[in-house]
Amino acid sequence: MKGFCEKCRNIVEYSVKTVNKEKLLKGKNLKYISKVAYCNECKEEIFVPEIRDYNLNALDNAYRDSEDLIKVNDIEKILEKYNIGKRPLSLLLGWGEGTLTRYIDGDTPTKPYSEILKQILASNDYYREILERNKDNISSVAYRKSMAAVDSINMDAVSETNKLEAATQYLLFLTSEITPLALQKLLYFVQGFHKAFTDKFIFSEDCEAWAHGPVYRDVFYKYREYGYNPIEEKDLSIDNINLTESEKELFYYIVLYFGCYSGKVLEDMTHSEVPWRKARHGLKAGESSDRIINKADITSYFYSVKDKYKMLNYIDIKDYSKDLFNKLYC
Ligand SMILES: [Zn+2]
User: Fold this and answer.
1) What pLDDT digit, counting tens, does each position of 3-57 carry?
2) Cα of 59 to ligand 1 centre, how many Å?
3) How many domains is the chain partitioned into structurally?
4) How far, in Å, from the CA of 21 to the mean position of ligand 1?
5) Which of 171, 174, 224, 326 is 20 to 30 A (C-alpha) from 239?
6) How far is the CA of 6 from the centre of ligand 1 (A)?
7) Using one digit for the tens of pLDDT, what is the confidence trace for 208-263?
8) Alpha-carbon distance 42 to 46, whole Å?
9) Same domain, 202 and 287
10) Is 113 exposed, middle or buried (0-12, 13-18, 19+ CB in 10 A)?
11) pTM of the entire predicted model
12) Which residue, 22, 38, 67, sits at the end of a domain?
C-alpha cells in the first residue's frame, strides 16, 4: 500500500494499525474501531483518503448501531436482492425520487424510513406487496425484473425446505405403479445408503417404526388415500427439483435394486433389519407405534452393510438387496 508522506515529501509504503476510539456525536458516546496509517520510512502518521473514508464509515455505523438504524450496505443489499434501482425503489415507497440515492451516499435515514427499509430487507412478502401495490409508479420493465427476483428467492426457499418432498417426487418419476408402502421403504433405503456413502443424511425428518415398516409421517398422510393401490401423482414435476446429480444417481440405483420388489417384500426386508427391530423392541407384531427409528441406529446399520459388502459405488447395493431377498425367500 502506498501513500504520500508529508514529512518524507515522497510516495511511501505505509502500514495500518487499528485503534479503539470513542467519540461524542449527537449527544452519544460512540465506541468504534478506527484505522491509522504510518509511513514505513519515518514512522509518522500519514493521511490516506481511503482510510479516512473507512473511519467515517465505522463512526457512522457505530452511530446507526446505537440508534438501531439501517446501514448503507444493508440498503445496497436490498437493491441487489430485489434487482431494483435506487430511483424506482424510492418511487415504489412513495418517497422523493432522490431519497435512496442520498441514503446510499451516506445521509442517515429517519427512524420510520429506516424501519421500512429494514422490513423490506427481512421479508420478501412485505416487499412483494409494496411492489404489487405501487407498480404503476415505476416502469413495467423495472416491475417485471424485480418481481422475477422475488419469485426466484421464494422458489429457493421452498425447494430448500422440502428435500423429502423432492425425493418423493423423484421416486414417483422413476417408478411406475408404486404403492405408498413401497414408496416409504425406498425412501428409507435412500436415507440409509445416502448416509453410508456420503456421511450425511439426505432428510432431516425422522422415520417412524410402524407395524408395516419404516414410515415418513408427512409422506404417509400425503398419499394415504391410495391405501394399497399405486399412487397416481397428477402434478408430477421434476424440473428444477431440489436434488443434486449424485443424489439422483442414488435414487436410480435404489429403484433399480429395490424398486423391483413389491411393497410386501420390502416390508419384510426392513423388518429383518436392526434399526426397525430395535425401535420396536418390546412391541407386539402389528402393534401400532410412532416410535422414531434412531438416526444413530440407521447410521451404524448402513455403515456395517456398506462395509460387509465392500461397497465402493452405488451399483454395489445390488449385492445387498439380492442377498436380503434370498435370505428371506429362498
Ligand atoms: Zn515518512
Assistant:
1) 999 999 999 999 999 899 999 888 888 999 899 999 999 999 999 999 999 999 8
2) 27
3) 3
4) 24
5) 224
6) 7
7) 999 999 999 989 988 988 999 999 877 777 877 888 889 999 999 999 999 999 99
8) 10
9) yes
10) middle
11) 0.54
12) 67
